[in-house]
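Supplementary notes for students who missed Thursday's class. We covered one full example, reproduced here. Read the sequence, then the structure, then the short commentary at the end.
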Amino acid sequence: MEIPGTGRRVTAREAGLVACRRCARVWPMDQERCSRCGSRLESRDSASLQKVWAWWVAGVIAYIPANIYPMLSTNTLVSSTENTIVGGAVEIAKYGSYGVAAIILIASVLIPVGKFLAIAFLAISARRGSSVPARKRTHLYEIVEFIGRWSMIDVFVVAILSSLVQLSVVASIRPGPAAFTFALSVIFTMLSAQSFDPRLIWDARFRGTKRTRR
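Structure (token representation):
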């Protein structure tokens, strides 16, 4: 926000205002709850980055066994096979379903790894600052929030297959141990992203501006 006639920019916090994190409505600093949605108003979450890193580490730890252990176990009269996430995508590609294999790899490997890197970058830049413009970092945070729900596609596929392909003696498909740890990793990563206070991005920017002026 720019003060008319001075050219000086101030944050909402400096202007005595606070924005609701749920509905984005702006209220005076001394108001405790948002009159629109009832959420508790906080100028900043002082423990935001600690929560981000705690959930982030938990997500990374859960993601490791999710890629090591089988995601899907298939049993038939003549054979029994177990496939990891990547192994399952390779098997699907062998049968000519390249589009499905690509979707699984993107949703189960590229997106989770990208989210880990993006959240870590946002948390570090909020603490130390960054040469990347604050507006672009805010857009990155919004993208991470938006794509979070699609990271569960592998778990959904396993659940659907397990319920549909239960032909008793002929064949059966069961979720492997990786399905549980992968779901935990997705949940922890979503909690990590939700714990991040994007207003810290702009705080870091204004701190950097003030240091430059001095």
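Commentary. Residues 98-128 form the longest helix (31 residues). The beta strands are 17-19, 26-28, 72-76, 80-83, 171-175. If anything here is unclear, bring it to office hours.
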